[in-house]
Automatic annotation (TrEMBL):
Gene3D superfamilies: Winged helix-like DNA-binding domain superfamily/Winged helix DNA-binding domain (1.10.10.10). It comes from Candidatus Opimibacter skivensis. Residues 390-487 form the Peptidase S74 domain. Pfam families: Peptidase_S74 (PF13884). InterPro entries: S74_ICA, WH-like_DNA-bd_sf. This is Tail fiber domain-containing protein. It comes from the Bacteria.
Length: 502
C-alpha cells in the first residue's frame, strides 16, 4: 500500500511493502522490501533496502545496501554503505563506505566513513571515527571518534573511544583502551587493561595484561610483562618474561621467565631461561645464559655471560663474569671472572679477579685477590718484567727489615718435581712449610710471605725474599769489611815484627 507513492520520473525501482519508497521522485534502480523501507528516498539511486524501516530516512544517498530491521534507518545522504542486521548503521546520516554486519553494528555512526563492522554491536558507539575494522561481538564497542583501528575478536578494543591506529586480535585484547594510540595486541586479553598507553605491542595470551599507561613496550609470549602498569621502553620475549614488571624502564628479557620478578629495575638485559629471575629493583645488569644472575634482587651494574653465572648474587654490584658457572656463589662487589667455573669458590669476597678454567682465589671471603690459571698450570711467562707499586706514599709503619743473614742461613733450598708436571722437569726453590718455620724462629711469624687457601694449601710470595737477601748481603759485607780491616791490622803488625827497625 502506497509503495512508490510519490514517484514521478524514477525508473527501475522495486518496492515491496507498505510505504516502501513512499517519497521517491526521481531516484532510479532502488529496491525496497519491507514496511517503510527507503520511505524518505527522493533522488537516491542504486539503493537496496530489505527489512522494516531499512534505509527509512535516506533521501539522496546512493549505492547503499541495508538488510535487517531499521538497518541504516537514519541515513540521508551517506553513500556506498552496507548494513546487514537489526539496527545496523541505525544512526548513520552522511557517513559513506561503511560496512556493518550484525545486530546494532555501527549503531551510532553518523558521519564516520570507511568503517567495517562484523559482529553484534561491533563499533556500536562509533559516531565520526573512520577507517576502523571491527570483527567480533562488541568489538570496538565504545569507539566514538577513534580512527584507523582494527579489532578482531569478541570485546576487542571494547572501551576505545578516541584511540587511533590500534590493532587488537583475540578475545578482550585491548579491552580497556580508551585514548591510547598505536598499540598492537595479538592474543586473548593481551593489553586488556591498557587505557592511555601508546605504541605498545603484545603478542600472546595475557601479554601486557595489566598495562595501563605504559608506552613503547613489546611483549611476546604467554603472560609476558603481565603486571606492567606504567613501565615503558621494555621488551619481553618468552612466556612470563618480565612478568612482575610494574614501572621498570628500558628492560629487555628474552627467554622463559627471564626478569620474571622485576618490578622497577631499569636498563636490564636478560637472555635465557630464568636469567635475572629474582631481580626486583636492580638496574643496568646484563645476564646472558640460562639462570644467569638468577638470584639477583637489587644488585646493579653486573654482567654475567654463561649458564648459571653469578647465580647466587643478590645485592652485589659491579661484578663481571664470563663462562658457565663462573662466580656461581659470589655475593660481593667488583669481582671479575673469565673462564668456565672461574671464581666459583668466591662467596662474600670483593674486588677479586680470576682468569682461566676453574681458576680460584685462595680465600672465598677475602678481598683484592688475583688468580690467573688453575693449579694445573705448569708455565707462566711475560715478555717484560713486572712493575710492582712501591711508592713511599702507599706504605705505613716503615721499619728496617729484621730478617737478614741469620734468617737466610736457616733456609733450606731444595730441588723437586711437580706432581702435575707431565715433563717431570726438576725445579729449584723452597718448601713453604720450611720457610714458615724459619720465619717463626726469626721472630717474623706475622708476615705476608706465606699464605694458605681454603683447602689449607700453602703458597709462597717469592718476591718477599728479596729484601732479606739484600739485608743478608749487607750484613755479610759488613762482616767482610770488618775482617778486611782486621787482616790489614794483622799484616801491619807482622810486618813490624819481621822487618827490624834501623
Amino acid at each position: 500500500m502506497n509503495a512508490l507513492f510519490a514517484n514521478t520520473t524514477g525508473s527501475f525501482n522495486t518496492a515491496n511493502g507498505r510505504t516502501a519508497l513512499f517519497n521517491n521522485t526521481t531516484g532510479n534502480n532502488n529496491t525496497a522490501s519491507g514496511v517503510d523501507a527507503l520511505r524518505s528516498n527522493t533522488s537516491g539511486v542504486n539503493n537496496t533496502a530489505n527489512g522494516l524501516s531499512a534505509l527509512r530516512s535516506n533521501t539522496t544517498g546512493v549505492n547503499n545496501t541495508a538488510a535487517g530491521l531499521e538497518a541504516l534507518f537514519s541515513n540521508t545522504t551517506g553513500n556506498y554503505n552496507t548494513a546487514n542486521g537489526l539496527d545496523a548503521l541505525f544512526s548513520n546520516v552522511s557517513g559513506s563506505n561503511n560496512t556493518a554486519n550484525g545486530w546494532n553494528a555501527l549503531y551510532f555512526n553518523t558521519t564516520g566513513f570507511q568503517n567495517t563492522s562484523n559482529g553484534a554491536s561491533a563499533l556500536y558507539s562509533n559516531t565520526t571515527g573512520f577507517i576502523n575494522t571491527a570483527t567480533g561481538l562488541q568489538a570496538l564497542y565504545s569507539n566514538t571518534t577513534g580512527s584507523n583501528n582494527t579489532a578482531n575478536g569478541a570485546n576487542t578494543l571494547y572501551s576505545n573511544t578516541s584511540g587511533t591506529y590500534n590493532t587488537a586480535s583475540g578475545r578482550d585484547a585491548l579491552f580497556a583502551n580508551t585514548t591510547g594510540d598505536n598499540n598492537s595486541a595479538y592474543g586473548a586479553s593481551a593489553l586488556v587493561s591498557n587505557t592511555t598507553g601508546f605504541s605498545n605491542t603484545a603478542a600472546g595470551v595475557d601479554a601486557l595484561h595489566s598495562n595501563i599507561s605504559g608506552n613503547s613496550n613489546t611483549a611476546i609470549g604467554l603472560d609476558a610483562m603481565y603486571s606492567n602498569s606504567s613501565g615503558f621502553g621494555n621488551t619481553a620475549s618468552g612466556e612470563t618474561a618480565l612478568y612482575s614488571n610494574t614501572f621498570g624502564l628500558w628492560n629487555t628479557a628474552n627467554g622463559l621467565q627471564a626478569l620474571y620478578s622485576n618490578t622497577s629495575g631499569q636498563g636490564n638485559a636478560a637472555m635465557g631461561v630464568d636469567a635475572l629471575y629474582f631481580n626486583t629493583t636492580g638496574s643496568s645488569n646484563t645476564a646472558d645464559g640460562v639462570g644467569a644472575l638468577y638470584s639477583n634482587t637489587t644488585g646493579s651494574y653486573c654482567t654475567a655471560v654463561g649458564r648459571h653465572t653469578l647465580y647466587t648474587n643478590i645485592i652485589g654490584n659491579f661484578n663481571t663474569t664470563i663462562g658457565d658457572s663462573s662466580m656461581f656463589f659470589a655475593t660481593g662487589n667488583t669481582n671479575t671472572a673469565i673462564g668456565f667455573a672461574s671464581g666459583k669458590g668466591i662467596t662474600s669476597g670483593s674486588n677479586n679477579v680470576t682468569v682461566g678454567y676453574r681458576a680460584q682465589v685462595p680465600t672465598s671471603t677475602a678481598d683484592n685477590q688475583v688468580r690467573i690459571g688453575n693449579t694445573n698450570i705448569t708455565y707462566a711467562g711475560i715478555q717484560v718484567a713486572w712493575t710492582i707499586t712501591s711508592d713511599r706514599r702507599w706504605k705505613s709503619d716503615i721499619q728496617e727489615s729484621n730478617l737478614g743473614l741469620d734468617f737466610i742461613s736457616k733456609l733450606k733450598p731444595v730441588s723437586y718435581v711437580r706432581k702435575n708436571d707431565e715433563s717431570q722437569k726438576r725445579e729449584y726453590g723452597f718448601i713453604a712449610q720450611d720457610l714458615e718455620d724459619a720465619l717463626n724462629t726469626s721472630g717474623a711469624a706475622d708476615n705476608g710471605m706465606i699464605s694458605k687457601d681454603d683447602k689449607d694449601m700453602y703458597g709462597v710470595r717469592y718476591n718477599d725474599l728479596m729484601a732479606p737477601m739484600v739485608k743478608a748481603i749487607q750484613e755479610q759485607q759488613t762482616q767482610i769489611e770488618t775482617l778486611k780491616n782486621e787482616i790489614a791490622s794483622l799484616q801491619n803488625t807482622i810486618q813490624e815484627l819481621v822487618i827490624p827497625k834501623k
